[in-house]
Amino acid sequence: MVKAVPEPITTIALVGSPNVGKSVVFNSLTGSYVTVSNYPGTTVEVASGTGVIRGQEYLVIDTPGIYSLLPISAEELVTRDFLFRERPGLVVHVVDAKNLSRHLPLTLQLLEAGLKVILQLNIIDEASSLGLAIDDGWLQEHLAIPVVPTVAVSGQGMGRLRREIAAALDYWQSPRVQGGSGCDRCRERKAVGHGQGQQGAGAAPLSSIYPSHIVEAVHEVIGLTGQTLALHDGCEEDQGALWAQALLLLQGDEALVDIVRRSDPRAARLLRSLTGKLEDHFGGALPLVIAVERQAWANDVCRRSVFEVKEPRRRLVDTWGRRLTRVWPGLPIALLIMYLVFYRFVGTFGAGTLVDWLDTVFTAQVNPLVEEILGKALPWPLVFRLLGGEYGIITLGFRYALAIVLPIVGTFFLAFALLEDSGYLPRLSLLVNRACQVLGLTGRSAIPLVLGLGCGTMATITTRTLETRRERLIATFLLALAVPCSAQLGLIMALLAPYPGVLLGWALCVFAVMIGAGSLASRLIPGPRASFYMEVPPLRMPRPGNVIGKTAARVSWYLKEVLPLFVGASVALWIGSETGLFQAAVKGLAPVTAALGLPEEVGAVLIYGFFRRDYGAAGLYDMAPIMSPPQLLIAAVTLTLFVPCIAQAAVNVKEQGWLRAALMISFIFPFAIASGIALHFLMVFSGIM
Amino acid sequence: MPAGLTRLSQLDEGTKATVVDICATDPAIIRKLMALGVLPGASVTPLQLRPAVLCRVGYTQIAMDLEIANAIAVLPQGEGPSDREEVG
To answer: A11-203: which CATH number, 3.40.50.300, 3.40.630.30, 3.20.20.70, 3.10.150.10?
Structure first.
């Protein structure tokens, strides 16, 4: 009986190191229906979308950046697993053309693994301005795979890429190439020609790159572990994958070695002794030996295809790029940038000008209109208050979200996207690396911490890019405790702008807490010290399309997350106020506000702060007229240190687990109040209050 | 120790050198450096050493802390005038 099996949709995987423009290529190849989801069993996100090329629909996957099939991080492991398990119909290896010799070893590994590869030489314009010319025709012939130079951001070469993709898939899926086999996945694998000595750089000739001892060892390892691994993958043995996996086993790949050890301890022991013998023979670690051989091959290929045809153009931006990483003028410039971005752009313009304008529109026009319409349409005062009263969903919730928070967050994300796209952030990381070490962090955490000045929730998610658990935990803790999000930041700056002394005092207090808490945490939290290493891309002119796209994506993410919470918060507060609970709670907080030296009404701000810190800051903004400058300082400091908003707390739980998240919150809450009280006593004691 | 062999962290800014070995005990560090192109045989030029090491490998710039730079054994190729110009 013949069962009608639907044609499985072919998968195209985009593979490459970070900073090569993979996401631009991804966006270009996929039209719509892009989803970002976690790779099963991990927290690593993989973007997938459908693309139509030459009328055929494909599934395009944007894999996490990878330098080699021997993974450095959890993200890289996901890419590796994906390639071996899902066996995409086609892999587009996106590389930075000017660094071809560094990327070719990965191309080699992909080919060794028996995958069907197209080499995309992206950012070819930068290679040209460096005076490089790449003979892609020769490369294509020598590697026997399609080689396409492109400038993905401008679209140059993308048409040809699409044609090559279609042509490659057409060829490999044509009936004469298809073999009959067992399961559907294997059918697809056979269809891309494994083990048939395909493409000149197929499995057989590739092995000549390695010394004979290694080749023999690989065959031995395949004999030992081939079945175990194939069984684990749930598929037939596949020559390419076996070869690649054997090489990985010899290099001590933890994940694979673990699989072998669990099913066949004897094979694991033999593997270890084999590796030991080889390392003795070569006098060095096998990963290094193998990497050197691959690099030698790659260098040889590049010698014959990449030519320096003219002197590199000395660009002003490169000279400046170099200056930015030195303490002078780098540090003053960094401070200047921070000042311009946060104080002037987000603070004065976003939180000042834009908020004033939007808030006036709301209070002068929208709110009265809403009250009038609702007053006429809804005779029930209760419901009226729900929507349009003091805590009304529209009059308070929407107003806060759209008129107060949105302009601030929007300006922040715009500025951040500009910094990001220009390539400045890695340079900032370099500058602050030493300082970060005091906190138990490395310069890489500068990025989530700076992003935390925009939105702590988003920044907490970004801590995933940090290398060690310890770093992730410390960064998450500091984000929850001491890094004010942009709404809070902007509002506090606008609030304290008339009192620059207070503003400075606030900044110093928060900064001191951050340093203190960070260094304490770094002493108390066990774990290896993270090392700092990072690729520093060239400084580039930010591209408007990219910047606006990223900003729009982040703002819409924020709105989707914020608006429901504000609505929820105003409903909760409405319930509280209708039942008298809210007023009772404010009264109940009177001892606390008294200890803080603040007027009783500010208790409301603390309660708002439970729902969202920025909500609380907005409430503080409204209440500013009744407080003196020292009181504003205490209120601002307490609120800044206060527990993170619901969304950030939720993400904390997701990233760190319930126990750690609960421990953090149960420390932060009393600590914030205690800090405020301490500040109060300090000021009374010194006669300021 | 063979004459001239030194560590990346000991080089003067702008001195082009060839990587001879990576003397790190932590395999993770070795992998990272490999991934960034710092391999025996690779040509590397430190552009600055403070506040963190920034060096050029091929057409890429790599940043690392002093500890990692300490683990990279190199052989200087002698001062190249073109590299000296590019520094700073």
So the answer is: 3.40.50.300
